[in-house]
What we know:
- This protein has helices at about 20-35, 40-50, 60-70, 75-85, 85-100, 105-120, 140, 155-165, 170-180, 185-200, 205-210, 220-225, 230-240, 245-249, and strands spanning about 125, 130-135, 150-155.
- Strand 1 (about 125) and strand 2 form a beta hairpin.
- It contains 14 helices and three strands.
- The chain has two domains: about 1-50, no CATH class; about 75-249, Orthogonal Bundle (hpI Integrase, Chain A), CATH 1.10.443.
- The chain is elongated, with a radius of gyration of 20 Å.
Amino acid sequence: MLKHYDCLENPQKLNEIPASNRSNILKTMVNLSKFLGTYETYKGKLKQHGIKWLNSDDSFNSFLRIINNNHSNLGEWYKVAQNILHDNEKLYLRFALLSGIRKGEAITSFNLIINLSQQNKLSEYYNAEHGILEHFKYGDLFLRQTKKVYISIVAKDLINEICNSQPVSYSAIRKRLTRNKQTLRIKELRSYFATYLRKKGIISEYIDLIQGRIPRSVFARHYLKVDDFKALVAQVLAVTENLESNLIS
């Protein structure tokens, strides 16, 4: 555990440890802080950085996420982050917010858009007619065993901005934020996206589809159809058009 000793002074580094091992490292750090007589201070640091115990009870974790999901100051964090990050990283943050995909998927997608655009192959990924990124065409990147994303509805203007941007690195973004004493809240943008769309009338099954979740319900798996895909895209884009301004207002 010595290689993780820096998690005692910088508990945000726990987020860099795979989930399968994070609880053990956290327990070790807590026990070490008690031995050193710094437990109360360490507990305060954990709370400050939003570090929580992992629990195998997924349904209970989902319940806790629902009742504790507070986006009240996420907009302030977003504005501060925009002032810290480089232009391409700011654009990535906006892309993550407006697409609603996971932070790692957003990095992969962002850089893939740039790469394909430079090769004049963007049409193989972005369906401009429908306004969607077709992640399913790159299964090795986006269709992982436990986490998948099939499509994202993204405005063409945003895609064009990304095409003219520079690639991004999550490690660089993380270092820049932590160096400026900012917590890593990128994954919360995905939650905000889903909540905002639902409040604006997009049905939960469509939100699940956009975010890469195929519900286990009989309805979703056998009866849910998108009768007018262009209408759905238009509806989602109309909602997300004001999503960023709503977050920071």
